[in-house]
What does this fold into?
Amino acid sequence: MTLANVIEWLVKGLVWVLILLGGFAYLTYYERRALARIQVRVGPNRAGPWGLLQPIADAIKLIFKEEFMPARADKLLFTLAPIITLTPALVITAVVPFGPESASFQLFGRTITWYIADLNVGVLYIMSIASIAVYGIVLAGWSSNNKYATLGGLRSTAQMLSYELALGLSFIAVIVLANSTRLLDIVEAQKGMWFAVLQPVGFVIFLIATLAEVNRAPFDMPEAEQELAAGYHSEYGGMKFALLFMAEYDKMIAICTIAASLFLGGYREPWFLRDTVLGVDQTPWLGPLYVFIKVFILLFGMIWVRATWPRIRYDRLMAFGWKILLPLSLALVFLTSIGMLLAEQVNPLYQWGIPLASLAAGFIAILGMYQTLRRKEYARA
Amino acid sequence: MQHEWLYIGLFLVVGIIIPIAPLIIARLVAPRKPNPIKQSTYECGLETVGESRVQFKAQYYIFALVFLVFDVETVFLFPWALALKQMPLFVALEGILFITILVVGLVYAWRKGMLEWA
Amino acid sequence: MTAPAPVETLDLAARFPGWVTPDSRPGYSGWIVEKDKLLDFARALRDDLGYDYLSSVTGVDYLPEGKMEVVYHAYKTTGGPGVNFKVQVERRDPVEVPSLVSIYPGAEFQEREAWDLLGIKFTGHPDLRRILMWEDFAGHPLRKDWREAYFEEEFKPFKSRWPEGKFQMAEDKARLGDNLSFPAGFDPRKKTDFDPEKALYEALRQYQKTESGLETEHLLVNIGPHHPSTHGVFRVAVVLDGETIVNLKPVMGYLHRNHEKIGERNTFLMNMPYTDRLDYLTSMSNNFGYALAVEKLMGITPPERAEYIRVMMAELTRIANHVWAIGFLLNDLGAYFTPMLYAQEERELILDIFEAVSGSRMMCNYFRFGGVARDLPDGVLEKVRDLAFDRLPRKVDELENLLADNEIIRARGIGQGVLTAEDAIRYSTSGPLLRASGIPYDVRRAEPYSIYDRLEFDVACRPNGDIYDRMMIRFDEIRQSLRIIQQTVKQIPAGPIMAVKPAYQVRVPPGEAYGRVEGPKGELGFYIVSTGKSSPWRYHVRAPSFINLTAFGPMCVGQKIADLVAILGSIDIVLGECDR
It folds into this structure.
């Protein structure tokens, strides 16, 4: 570990963070344009060609905006909260590989890999950092000393707690399938088949839980505009608000890269292209491109959901998390481990029992939900 | 391996500097003209009444308690899941028994009405 | 097509001897009730005679006679003409009239309004605070002897502007502060320790506390006026237990401009464009109601073609309003603008038609006493035909397909914010709110005006009275409106569009009239008293947005905070009308 080493990683980290920030800026642009298309509008198209300079204009505006702080706020925490929110959103991506080892390249005599760190407990790292993110929001809400913000902060705690369980359990299903918590291993384990195919319901649970974790519609309770004005960031303006906003969108990007790595084969090509020239083994530099495409598509999914669905109510959100997602993901862990045991000890073909069984479990859960809703309707008439 | 954690540490440093930098820039360039009205707490254009930090409904905390139980148990499952393929069948089944206990706990909390948001 | 309920001749004077006398002033109708007997009379009227629906309560200040009058209009929810009864009291403070809230809870806000603007004290009212003006406002502005700052003269047009046209800024004539009058002993430079919010918060704290195991503090939150989803500057003060609403009080008046006082200064015709500004989304319907009331006084009926145009425009307004309401309800439920923008596309096409006929998209000012301002321009009828027969039915089906089966909408709508049929009547709600609670009451059928008795349509009605039904009933009503428009397009005759010669000044004989139409938001009524002068002596608007809010509190208590906004959205209010 030399000074050169330290500088190398600092620079690498800085470049990656700057890419994330640029990604945030253009994610807002992407979202606004996509929403506009869905809503029969044009979207931002004035600043620069196709409105491409819009994010930059926004950034400049936010920098020059007056900073003020409510007199009743807790000054220190009020300033710290945006930092505490943004930092986890940035560092969570440290363990996500964006390209295979073979795609590493030489620069100034150093080997640059496509990840920041190669932890053997990568999944655990992601889980722990993800749970730190909630602190920022709670602190932001609490330190503002504002009723809407406090309510928003409390809501977000309860919500993130509830969905973190489902999230953690869907991680376990992946670990069972990959037999490793190292993300490089998990990605390589999907060489033959994506885990999204082997564990489709787990993938769906992961997506739903991440929507809740990053406070996106239809789970955007903490900032539910209709009831809580702006929720936990009601009192924020200027650059501090920009940081909170940035955290939210960087979390989206981060969570999509994680979803891509855990379930969609990360930098690996789609499994059916394995032996063609499009395979990552044949052309390593395609790896980052595959990640980008997958993230792009997953992000579109999030935007689409936002454009389409109303917000579900808070108590139902909690009920959904605890009464549907949690039992279902417990069942999935159970089914996946049984399936893996059978595949290991009896016949590899039993592996295909996992998707079938999990789909059946998902179907039962949906049926149960449907029954409850119908019962309500019956009670109404 | 230690290196990897060091890299994370370095990345964390970058991750902390990056949010602080714009705050400092904004502090340098943004105008600051505070006045009491601007600094008042937002409550839809009215003066707030009462305290925002009241003794809140216990519901939120009950959820936190239930969460704590389940989260710790989820973490216990991680090493088990990791070693599933290597371990003898008996041990693997024990893990499944553990999941069953979790389910029983969930059912108990459910029946006790802990999961009702009222 | 149902026939209107048979008119029974009602002789209240014979039924309640000593209590009631007929109102014999020329041009007036109805009954004058003794003040002491008002409660007994109202109870008998509701329970024995079946007039269960109190539509309008308002006051009139007869300054020359030295009297104050409270005017009530009650109807049967089964249909038929209503009964109009009044209470007269000496115009000497305190002017006191017994409150009818115990019999007709729907009178609550209207009595507060009468207290606020006219200074009529309703004894026995549970929460008699000001409602449109602020709490420490001095005086009651609708009294005839109340004069505003920069008062110029009694009636418009002011001589300084017309016909001489010597325009002078009011602030040049009198320095700021010089023409204001303060109550005795009030010094504007001194800060008073009066807390305008105190009465509200005290009223808010009066609720039944339930005993539960864990002690928690209740949180008082103001939602609005400066809030993204209260449909304007509407404010609700809510007491929350966690996320559950324990008690709430709506607060309005932030957009108050004393429409009625200004209306009493204006000439009759000057009020026509002014009604556009009530519910600025449905200006055609507002015009309709006002024209109807004044025509009743003048005793004229518009020619056939004008009637068809009026109905066509009113129904187009209803569609435009309902798609807007559905879109915004979805926004209130948290859908990010997509349904709203889809709905708005159709509204824009309807506004195109309004622009073609009246020259303005929103502030149409299209109706005149005895007809409409202009005939339909070329091509408009074809446009309406295209919309009514082709595009709108298609698009409404599409919108309904997108929304009606959405699981989240169902979960958030079904069984939430329920208003039972009894409560809907008791609280004098009207329009889609009333009909979604299972009461098929529609002024177009209950007391047909214009040509509605000749048109075929059904009164949309849904049984459950929850948010979901209130959304769906708007789809039903759009379909019925389309049926009406289709008939008017087919049947519209040629001919004149005005019964009288257009004039700036109309001669309105003395008397009173109550004209009511089924506006998109509910029953829109105009109560007008004329003394034969160029301006109305009393010009009162029975605003559906305002009165429907009476039921808002009872609907919300026990629901979650997120439902509050959805319930408000399902009532569909416009603050321009609510605050007047």
Chain B has one domain: 2-111. The domain at 2-111 of chain B is CATH 1.20.58.1610 (Methane Monooxygenase Hydroxylase; Chain G, domain 1).
